[in-house]
């Protein structure tokens, strides 16, 4: 795989170089300078949060932890990489890997934070305002010109073969973690035990995860961004929801699985199977020119059918959707764009950068575009039993089977999520 990935990465860099040079010509630029960014300490403290380099910088190189570093692209010369690599006995000095992609850059290792010497019409991309709080001055150039930033965002919407290979490997590594999490759950582990099992099997430290892992037992599975890890296992074991990914060379996977515990009602396991099938049905529809908003609507239509088929709603599936009941059972979107960022950029813009907000009835949807080859998206239908969303329906006369819902409340909810690339003829499920 290494040789193939090396070749794909070199092709990816040359593709980026051609695209950037076209944009420089269109915008009358002599250079584009990408700043990786840097971490700032917590207020009143000397400790720093975990750092992740800016996405446009990582688009060129896998140095997703590089701080105080610059990449300068010009119309004619080899791209110049100024990598901050201080001589330090407190921390390990950053080094470049012995990989072919390094040869695509003119590399300069910089001991102290510094800005590149730039002349002419220059665009500075990244959090350059943060430099005003540091030891170096702002470099020459215009910070984040909106039209160029929009074009660079659009460039990241469609992934190269190298990027898709990275996303596939990120999925493979994450799935090893999910399998270990399931085994820890079967062994009656607490949320912290399950988290540690996931990290160990996916071979990553907690500071490297692409987002804070969601490891929710029982009712915690119904907290969409549950943010804690209980230290002790609960008395009853109804359910486990794990939403967790892996970063590979800067690219993120985002996978969710749900399992029924030994104390869950039989119906809960049946609903997990139904949501799996719903996920697969939606993925089967992914192809060029498919409207992602229509996939959102299809998710709710099929969710209504699931609620009726399993006796949770005593009416028609169409009424279940029209009355807003399905939105109470699943308040989030069907998914989002995926790449260097978990919720990758440009999802709520048209290709010409005009706003493309979500429809009023689905405000949480993060992607509103028609699918085109090279996009990578998540598909993540859910079915939850969240009191604050369901309780307002009790007085509406909605024909919900409340005794059955009450039985399922201790289970929290279900979410199943895969990562899918759009191909020229259909789709490629990277999670399989």
Automatic annotation (TrEMBL):
Keyword Lipid metabolism: no
Annotated Peptidase M24 domain residues: 166-424
PROSITE patterns referenced in this protein's UniProt entry, alphabetically: PROLINE_PEPTIDASE
Ranges for domain Xaa-Pro dipeptidase N-terminal: 10-152
Record field: catalytic activity: Xaa-L-Pro dipeptide + H2O = an L-alpha-amino acid + L-proline
Residues reported in the UniProt entry to bind Mn(2+) 1: 254, 336, 380, 417
Keyword Metal-binding: yes
Enzyme nomenclature, EC number: 3.4.13.9
Gene3D superfamilies attached to this UniProt entry: Creatinase/methionine aminopeptidase superfamily, Creatinase/prolidase N-terminal domain
Pfam families, per database record: PepQ_N (PF21216), Peptidase_M24 (PF00557)
Listed cofactors: Mn(2+)
Top-rank lineage group of the source organism: Bacteria
Family according to the record: Belongs to the peptidase M24B family. Bacterial-type prolidase subfamily.
Name this polypeptide is given: Xaa-Pro dipeptidase
Lineage, opening ranks: Bacteria, Pseudomonadati, Pseudomonadota, Gammaproteobacteria, Oceanospirillales
């Amino acid at each position: 795989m290494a040789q193939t990935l090396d070749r794909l990465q070199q092709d990816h860099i040359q593709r980026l170089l051609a695209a950037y040079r076209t944009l420089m010509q269109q915008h009358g630029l002599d250079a584009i300078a990408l700043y990786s960014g840097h971490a700032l300490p917590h207020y009143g403290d000397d400790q720093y949060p975990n750092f992740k380099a800016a996405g446009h910088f990582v688009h060129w190189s896998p140095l997703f932890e590089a701080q105080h570093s610059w990449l300068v692209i010009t119309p004619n010369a080899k791209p110049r990489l100024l990598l901050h690599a201080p001589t330090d006995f407190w921390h390990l000095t950053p080094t470049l890997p012995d990989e072919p992609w390094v040869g695509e850059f003119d590399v300069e290792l910089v001991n102290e934070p510094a800005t590149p010497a730039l002349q002419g019409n220059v665009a500075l991309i990244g959090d350059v305002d943060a430099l005003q709080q540091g030891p170096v001055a702002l470099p020459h150039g215009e910070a984040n010109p909106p039209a160029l930033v929009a074009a660079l965002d659009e460039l990241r919407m469609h992934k190269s073969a190298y990027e898709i290979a990275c996303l596939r490997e990120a999925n493979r590594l994450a799935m090893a973690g999910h399998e270990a999490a399931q085994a820890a759950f079967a062994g009656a582990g607490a949320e912290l035990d399950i988290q540690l099992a996931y990290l160990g099997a996916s071979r990553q430290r907690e500071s490297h995860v692409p987002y804070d892992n969601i490891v929710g037992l029982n009712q915690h599975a119904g907290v969409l961004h549950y943010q804690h890890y209980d230290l002790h296992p609960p008395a009853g074991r109804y359910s486990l929801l794990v939403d967790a990914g892996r970063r590979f060379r800067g690219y993120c996977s985002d996978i969710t699985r749900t399992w029924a515990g030994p104390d869950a009602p039989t119906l809960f396991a049946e609903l997990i199977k139904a949501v799996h099938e719903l996920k697969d049905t939606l993925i089967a529809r992914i192809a060029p020119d498919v409207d992602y908003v229509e996939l959102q609507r299809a998710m709710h239509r099929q969710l209504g059918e699931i609620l009726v088929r399993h006796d949770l709603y005593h009416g028609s599936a169409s009424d279940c959707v029209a009355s807003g009941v399905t939105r109470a059972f699943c308040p989030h979107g069907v998914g989002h764009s995926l790449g260097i960022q978990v919720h990758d950029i440009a999802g709520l813009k048209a290709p010409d950068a005009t706003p493309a907000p979500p429809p009023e009835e689905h405000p949480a949807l993060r992607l509103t575009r028609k699918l085109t080859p090279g996009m990578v998206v998540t598909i993540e239908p859910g079915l939850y039993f969240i009191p604050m969303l369901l309780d307002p329906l009790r007085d509406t006369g909605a024909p919900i089977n409340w005794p059955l819902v009450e039985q399922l409340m201790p289970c929290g909810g279900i979410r199943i999520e895969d990562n899918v690339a759009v191909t020229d003829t259909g789709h490629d499920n990277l999670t399989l």
